[in-house]
Write a structure and sequence with these properties.
Blueprint (H helix, E strand, L loop, with lengths): L44 E3 L2 E6 L2 E5 L7 E3 L7 E5 L6 E5 L2 E5 L7 E4 L16 E6 L4 E6 L4 E5 L2
Antiparallel strand pairs: 1-2, 2-3, 3-4, 5-6, 6-7, 7-8, 9-10, 10-11
Amino acid sequence: MKQASRPPPAGSTLIEYPVTQRPPISPLSAREKVSDLQPTGRVMKIYKNVAYWIVKDGLITSTDLGKTWKKFGSNVESGWGPFFSDDPKHFMLCGRKGFFETRDAGANWTNVAPLPPVKEFDDRRPGWFLNAGWDPTFGTLYASRMGFATFKLQQQ
């Protein structure tokens, strides 16, 4: 055990945990192109050891720590997400036309709800300034635009 520079609160103990060793980051000259596919989503998400990234017409995935990427499922208009449930085949994307749900790992997509019909959601740039969310337990969809109201839609 290592002592902190400031003692921990009375009745508690500071424990130092080992840091996982990571390989060094390659110098810029050693980086390599891994895909011609072009993500439009601002954030890549990892779910059950698969990396998902939004592209203009759906998703791309990597199952090998980003070494290679491939198109995932059928085409769907998308800009935000994906939002996952406990079932790896059931998840949601959001695009300018609303929320799209799949229950078969992207083979088919259903538009389950439009975005709120207000001008704040007329965004021509996927991934920018829209906040969207899905609570799969209660079937609740959320949409908000930075600086504007938040909307909630309960799925039937």
